[in-house]
Every structure is written in structure tokens, then in C-alpha cells.
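BUG: 3D viewer hangs when loading the predicted structure for this chain

Environment: internal workstation, default settings.
Expected: structure renders.
Actual: progress bar stalls at 90%.

Input used:
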Amino acid sequence: MSIIKEITTNIRSGHYSAQQVISSYLEIISHYDSSINSVTRVLQNRALQSAKEIDNSISQGKDIGSLAGVPFGVKDLFDVKGEVTTAGSKFLSKNQPAKQDAEIIRRLCAAGAIPVATTNMDEFAYGFVTDNAHHGITHNPHDFSRFAGGSSGGSAAAVGGGLFPFALGSDTNGSIRVPASLCGVWGIRPTYGSIPMQGVYPFAESFDTIGPFCQTIEDLKTVFNVMAGKEESVFFPSIPSVKIAQIGGWFERDVDQDILDSIQEITGLFRYNKKIELQYIEQVRAASFLITASEGGKLHLPSLREQPLEYDPATRERLMAGGLLPVSTYLKAKEIQRWFEQYLARIFNDYDLLIAPVVGSVAPQIDNPVVMVNGNPVSARVNLGIYTQPLSMSHCPILSVPLNRDGKLPVGLQLIAKPHQEELLFAVGAMLEQKDIAKSSIIQRNQMK
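C-alpha cells produced before the viewer hung:
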């Protein structure tokens, strides 16, 4: 069931006012976020004023948009008019407030959506666990002793925890896909370059993308279409003819068997399915690391030289190391990226979809922050994106699908399509949701009294 459609239908019919809906969600945030720590600022005055304007428009018979009255959260690297864009840092918190909304927030608000909060993140989006030195750790809404994933963990945890119906995140090397998987919600990394980045604080220009987290695939499609400036359209019509390939090898190592079993169940739904291995994937991941480190480091190097103590020590060390990488190393990594894009394009001559895990297991424990790589425990903050980072080297859209886990902690899968084939991803996601293979793990709150 679409949460967004339920809200907008009730508001349009007069069953609830937009002000009642927003007030209810603000109360939910106030009561429940203390355990999750997903919200950094509540935008109460703006939200209530926007809701009042929507109610006035309804009373005057005006068009109120496809997202009218729907509250949403904003990762704290998007410009919100009148608020300081901190990107989770102490350093940027001294800046002047944004003079206007980021372009994507403007589009959502033009469709009637209402921002109600900014959300926690890894400082400068450099991490996979949302462990922020200034705002604290965001906890997984399904087990407070575990990480929510990152760097968009605040947004994913808030949606999974039922604090608002959708939220915005960014994905450089997996920062939408990883927290969506660990918090049990739908998320999408759109085709690189297809969504405007104006008003979004950068990290690594070669990979930066933005996208939504939602509670259902229908909601994800609705929000994406507004963000992308697209009209609503029917789902892809001929799913049985879709050719799908499981990515094996590297993408099977250190992966729990029940996740691999789910991949087999999904591929078995298609008449044409194969297993393939991607060549040189370890080198591709290494190149992704180097490009991210170099671009992120060079962006921050002037500030690091002047005010190094303003940075989280863990972030500072990685940014400084990246900023000092030789240009020749960066250029070689970019060559690998171009090769990988062409390589995947050839693979997509034979297949419509690729499928792989997002993570190898459920969310790591906060007091034991490790994941397994080649059978060895390594830092979760750096390595939770082991299966997402290589795929960021392409321009492909990637859907994070929450598996129906029957009471187990959430995990998700990646569905990868050719550039600008988001409609296919939504269609297959809808099929998986209809068959109860995919299902979000949402903590239901009593939205309206």
C-alpha cells in the first residue's frame, strides 16, 4: 500500500488537513527519534506554514500537486532555505544559512511535499555507518545495538523507523544502497547525472548521485518521477522476457547463504537467467577508492591545511591522504573507470538486469564495528560498501530491494540496469513486492489520532 497515496488522498478529500498530518509526524519525531538519533534539526515552523498554505490552496480549489502534504526528511548536505548546510561537519556549521532550497527540494515542494527535518550522516558523506563525531551514531531502527549504515543512515533509519514516509540521501559509493539494505527500505541510485545536483554539497564529482528512500516501490517511483521531472507512466510491460544475470565470484564471497538463496529465488522467476563474473573487480573497487579519496581530498585540502582540528579525526586522516595522492594515480584510476563503463555496456548487450547483494550480512553491531572480507574482520566504516563501490564506477541506475525476511533483521539486494532504465527497475521491484519476495521493514507509528 502506498503511504504517499494514502496521505494525499486523505488530504484532498478533507478527511485530514495537511496541518494535522504534519503535526502528527512532528509529534512522532519528537517521541521516537531519541532512540534512533536520525534527525539533526526539526523544521517545525517551515513545515507547519507549508501545510497551512496547502490547506488554503485546497479550500480555494487549486491544484496542490502529487505529493501534497507528504512530509519528508533531508540529508544534511542539501541546501534548505534559511538553514546552514553542514554536511555533518563542525567546519561548515559556521557558514551562512542557505539562501534558497536545493533544486531537488524545490521540485518536491512544488509538488506539495513538505520537509520536516534534516537527517544525520557521516561527516562529508565519507563513511558507511553514520557515526558522526558531532551528532552521534544513528541506530538501526530494528535493533538499536546495530548500525543503520551510511552515509545516508539518518534518512534510511528515519524512514525505516516510521518517522516520515520518504527521505533524501546521496550515493557516491553506496550511501543510499547500504543504509536502505540495513534499515529495510527501498532506495535508488539513479542514473549518474540524471538528477540535478544544484545545492547539494559535493564529495566526489565522478560518482555523486542523489535519490530517495521510501516505504514501498510505488512511493519510490512517485518520488523519483518528481525528482527527475518525469510524468507518471505505466510499469514496464513484459517482465517475463527480461534477461537477468547474477553477478557471482567477488559478489558471493562472505555473503550469508540466505541472501544467496534469495538471489536464486529471484533469478528463477525469469525464463532467461545466468550467472556471470565481472573481470578485474578488485582492481575496479580499488580504482573507486582512489578516485573518491582523490576528489574528496582535493576538495577539502585547503581547509584541512588551515583548520585541521575542525574535522572529525577519522575523516581528516582519510581526506588528507586522498588529497595528497599523485595525479598520475588518479588518472590511472579514471582510465579503469572508463574501461569498466564500456565493459558493462557490452554485458548489457546480452542482459537487461544484473543482480547482486548490497551487503554480505545484517547490520554490524555498534560495539563490534567490523564486516568480513575474505574471511577476515575489517572496519565496517570503510568496507560495508564492498559490493556497492565497484558498481558506482558505472553510470547505471541501481535499485536497493529490501528482502522479505520473516522477522529477521533486514538486508537487501542490488538490481542494476542500463543507464536511464529506472522504469524497468521499478517494474521488477513491483513484481517482487507483489510476490512477497521484497518487503520493507517499517516500524508502524500511529500517524493520526
